[in-house]
Design a protein that fits this description.
Length: 161
């Protein structure tokens, strides 16, 4: 059974790396926006404007990564059992994933992050994702039905931790 604290530490480490990359990209974009080479030579020259938009977008990413890191650090880890309702912080396994030993962790951010911990495959999903929406509020042994693109996935919740 994966340790949730270790999982959160892994997610925070990955988010911190991405946060630093976003800071570096924002700094590079800002430097390009104010560089002498970016000064418009004609009315059609938009290099400086494009660079400033890029800098603004990168700065927003920096803030988003910081919010995600803060959300994980503030996450209250609870152990779920057979009577629990699935919520933020739950580890959920569907019956189709028993053989592959795959679990979903419902986190506040970083949806799509995948890792392996103690020989267990884990995918982080958010409550806003199609899978998260289908799982939130359900209990162990409940059936779920999800539309993933044009495919309908029908399964049941085999385990909850």
């Amino acid at each position: 059974m994966p340790n949730k604290k270790q999982l959160i530490d892994l997610v925070v480490i990955e988010l911190s790396k991405e946060h630093q990359q976003a800071i570096d990209a924002a700094n590079d974009a800002h430097a390009a926006a104010v560089d002498d080479q970016s000064v418009a030579e004609t009315q059609y020259d938009t290099l400086a404007i494009e660079a400033s938009y890029l800098a603004e977008g990168q700065s927003k990413r920096v803030i988003e990564f910081q919010h995600a890191i803060d959300a994980y650090k503030a996450l209250n880890l609870v152990e779920f059992n057979n009577d629990s309702y699935i919520a933020l912080g739950a580890l959920v396994q569907l019956s189709a994933d028993l053989e592959a030993n795959h679990w979903f962790f419902i986190g506040p951010a970083a949806g799509g992050f995948r890792c392996q911990l103690d020989k267990v495959n884990i995918t982080v999903i958010t409550p806003q994702s199609p899978m998260g929406t289908a799982l939130i509020g359900k209990q162990q042994d409940d059936d779920i039905e999800i539309m993933l693109g044009s495919n309908k996935l029908t399964d049941y919740i085999a385990a909850l931790k």
